[in-house]
Amino acid sequence: MNKNLSRKINSAMLSSLLLPGFFGLYIIFESGFSLDLFFLLIVLFFALIGNFFYAIPVSLLIDVITSKLHKHYLIVSAILHLVFAFITIIFIREYSYFALFCALFFFLAEEWQKGSYKTLKLNQIISNGISLVVIVALAILSTYLLFDLTEKKTKEYYIIPDGYVGNVTVLYNMKDEPKPKKVGDYNVIKINELGYGLTSLPEAEGLIDNKYYYYDKDGLKEKIKENCIHIGSTGSTSNGEREFIYSSFTVINRGCTNHFSAYGSKYLEDHSMDVEEILQREGLGDFGY
Transmembrane segments in this chain: where (predicted)? Predict the structure, then answer.
């Protein structure tokens, strides 16, 4: 096997293994709970596909482009690896973050195998290292900004009765409901004491960018922290004549953690109403309640 191609394959394998390892450590550091092995295996699987079917051909192309460079070879090569990873945002959207880290690991594995660092003086290693950190930071920031600008966002502004804890259900496309009020760019959805709200809005799509507030009888509001909210399911149900679209989330007011925000809690005492029970209460069908 061609020595260059063999090195690329090694780099692809190393990059694919480092990616789930890196994100596994990040999850432990960020959330402090046990890892989801299945998630990491999925990351590994797609990293292998991306590295072998995209990164290796791209890296071979970069070798051709940089073949006549000497002085700034490392920086140019790093930039090109990250640029080609950045391009994947067109196809894989928010998962392009994974591509960026794969590209970084691939590049580092390549140069380590080549022994490029052995020919550099200490000041060159430091300057190249700083440059690489800056380039990676700019690539991540650019990906975030581009994704933020182009991604649709939900923009819902929930006001929830003070002290309410449990599941919250929102029914969309309710024709008899008035046009919602707005707070800036956000559509206001008021939740009643029974834990549900009706809105004439269509179901929101895109990146969740909602705001949640408790309000009391005097109209005073208190912002609910993000880790006190667990986003639940969306779905639909029918009364035989019409389909009703709904979404749900769970809110708590103490013991808020990143684990709850991500996974919810099966121990939470919840007295909220089922979707069918809500519809029957609103006179929109008989579901036997």
Answer: 12-29, 35-61, 73-91, 125-147
> Alpha carbon 21 to chain centroid distance?
18
Q: How many angstroms separate the most distant Cα atoms in the chain?
A: 79
Name every residue whose Cβ is closer than 8 Å to that of residue 286 and which is 6 or more positions away in sequence: 280
Per DSSP, what are the bridge partners of residue 247?
A: 170, 234
263, containing H or E segment: helix 258-263
Give Cα separations from 65 to 2, 59, 61, 73, 204 (angstroms).
19, 10, 6, 10, 45
Q: For residues 44-61, b (16+ Cβ closer than 10 Å) or e, as one string? A: eebbbebbeebbbebbee
Residues 6+ apart with CB under 8 A from 104: 81, 82, 136
At 25-63, the pLDDT tens digits run 877 776 655 556 788 889 999 999 999 999 999 999 999
Q: What are phi and psi of 108, to 5 degrees?
A: -65, -40
Over residues 119-161, the pLDDT tens digits come to: 777 777 777 778 878 888 888 888 777 766 667 778 899 999 9
**Of 133, 130, 145, which is closest to residue 97 (Cα–Cα)?**
145
Task: For residue 156, list its beta bridge partners.
Answer: 187
